[in-house]
# Entry
Amino acid sequence: MKRRDLLMFAGLAALAGCGNPGSDSKGNSGTLAFANRLRVPPLLEPAVAADGTKQFSLTMQAGQVELLPGKPTTTWGFNGAFLGPTIRATRGDRVAMRVHNQLGEPSTVHWHGMRLPAVMDGGPHQMIRPGATWSPHWTIDQPAATAWYHPHPHGNTAKHVYRGLAGLLLVDDPETAALGLPSTYGVDDVPLILQDKTLDANGVLQEDANPVWGLMGDQILVNGVYDPYFEVTTTLVRLRILNGSNARMYNVEFADRRRFHVIGSDAGLLAAPVAVDRVQLSPGSGWRSWSSSNRATRSCCAASPATTASTKGITSC
# Structure
């Protein structure tokens, strides 16, 4: 490909504080150079049992990662230091999860957006003790969707997600596959997990012990990357955008105000694409969009904090 454009994803504008009117955080507006390549969470490859069941293994663990360049931060993640791999399955698949807890405290894993028996859902009553393993299983029976997984311990959901425990769970189905949507993961089908964090001068993750509106950050990350860019190599790009922040709402738009198409929400595909120039995301929610890219141009997709409403987000479900 001789001509390529850079489709940039970054947190822009001052973090004015949705649900936190008194916040004086300035955010990372005006300091971005699109210097760091976007990290795309890897696909988690399953083992396949003799009966065809797809077996996925996840380990909750602590680690270190540079959320800000040159400043290691102690974080939590699934199968790594921060965030988790993307799980992908198809309607009709039998899936079995093996979730092992290597943290120093109990937690849970909830399959947000999945239709499944309550006993497999990973609610606050299904704690996984340190050193223990939880093995839920179910048959996927729902239309194509972009779900996600995250902890759901009573009173500590916000902190566990804030520390890095979150990942995407993609469901495909034959009907959606027949539509010809961009579907090459990490190339023209791109996951974007938006989060805000507060880090001190040494890169240490700061936590509010008693957040009123949820944990609010002053730096915006995409897939755990500060000041990121993504190099587009195709004309059409499908973005799976998740607001993984605790309380922050975002407006997502292109800097040149180009129109793009929203093709899905948390519940799956819409009946028809909707042309917009901006979408708003509340905590824990997501949109699926379809953008046309002129490969001879350079464009910027901005995620800026929304200040038009307040929400308690995922403070302590």
About this structure: The radius of gyration is 19 Å. Confidence is low (pLDDT under 50) at residues 1-26, 307-317. The helical segments are 157-162, 174-177.
